Amino acid sequence: MSPRWAAKVDANQHAIVKAMRKRGATCHLLFREGRGCPDVLAGFLGYNLLIEIKTEDGELTDREAKWHDWWRGTVYIVRTVNDALDILDRIARA
Questions:
Q1: CATH no. for residue 49?
Q2: Full residue range of the structural domain in which residue 41 is found
Q3: pLDDT tens digits for the chain (94 residues)?
Q4: Number of folded domains in the chain?
Q5: 3-state DSSP: the chain helix, strand, coil percent, rounded to 5?
Q6: Residue 49 C-alpha from the chain's centroid
Q7: 3 in a domain, yes or no?
Q8: Is this prediction's pTM over 0.90?
Q9: Half-sphere exposure (CA, 13 Å, Cβ side) for 33?
Q10: 3, 13, 43, 47: which could form a disulfide with 26 (CB 3.0–4.6 Å)?
């Protein structure tokens, strides 16, 4: 039997995902994957975005930091709704 990882949801995750969806992004919640995997996979205007959601004072766990170091792509760290929408705005302007 494989170990079960505790899925911890940051308090701001719901609001951030809701705002991104309202802006037109599709969001698949990955936080249950555990093992340091980012919280959300978002699709927006043909781009795939891996997003780690943290509270204002939240830090990456050791497991998250190792995953981010291992991953050979971009992972955005988002702390507020405005952070998330800024990322979508940059993509829309590209």
A1: 3.40.1350.10
A2: 13-93
A3: 344 445 678 889 999 999 999 999 999 999 889 899 999 999 999 999 999 999 999 999 999 999 999 999 999 999 999 999 999 999 999 8
A4: 1
A5: 40, 20, 40
A6: 8
A7: no
A8: no
A9: 15
A10: 43
